[in-house]
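Researcher: Here's a chain I'd like modeled. Treat it as a single chain, no partners, no ligands.
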Amino acid sequence: MTDKANVLFVDDEERILRTLKMLFKQQYNVQITTDGHEALEIIKRDNIHVLVSDQRMPIMQGVDLLRAAKEISPNTMRLLLTGYSDLAAIVGSVNEGEIFRYVSKPWDKDEIKQIIAKAVDIGLNVILSDKTTNIKEDNTVAANLGLLIIDDDKTTYDITTEIVGSKYFVKWGENIEQAFQILSEDRNIAVVIAEIKLGKQDISTPLKILKQYHPHTLTLVQTSFQDTTALIELINQGQIYRFLPKPIVKKLLERSIRDSIWHYRFLQKTPKLVARHAVDNLKDSAETTISSKIMGYLKKMRGVS
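Model: Modeled as a single isolated chain. Structure tokens:
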């Protein structure tokens, strides 16, 4: 045995698997399979640091494999590799598979090497505690945690307030400036629930930059917006925790809030795991697209004068 990381690739096209194995076999212990069921057996048997799965496969869809892999081995870093911008697959890969990155086919060789290297580094160095660990309910702690709604429609705020009652505090920013002012003033915002289209304004870039400054804050995007390219970028550059549809499905929103608060508290107990939510810095030009006022709020959040 060597000290190399274990990387598992799953794709129904053997040609693609051979290419990936050739590309990575020098750096890692690479295993390949065309069968999702076999992949799960490998994950049960071996300590797989990184799993990279195709989406459209006849035996088992990628999202189903990622979801099952998460249950078997939450330590494993999960990536979706696909040539299709399938909205259902994108949403499922986040909500069910909690993927680290979405990689499009055909891939850029240098880019995929960098992505796998980052996933391997996290997989090797961040030991994930047992997610079945009981985080005892503490009403005092809960009352100090809050949710921020970013939406020019008050409906999400009203429904969220109804869901959480007095258990958590809920704040509302009807525009991006209000929202970031709240974030800069209150360090106990655990979850942001954001509509990415506020009127004609797309707030994707501020949400991505927010993750750089506040990696432990979890973002739920609730939107009717269906631009798959933009949603993929929000996965890779914003590490969105959940995608939720509009109009609002109350039970789904309630479950997502419960899961995200639990995960936030889990991150507080195991701060090393914040690395699993790490995002690459955006190009400097991205920061110039948002107002100096928002950048001021972000720097305040980071403690930069």
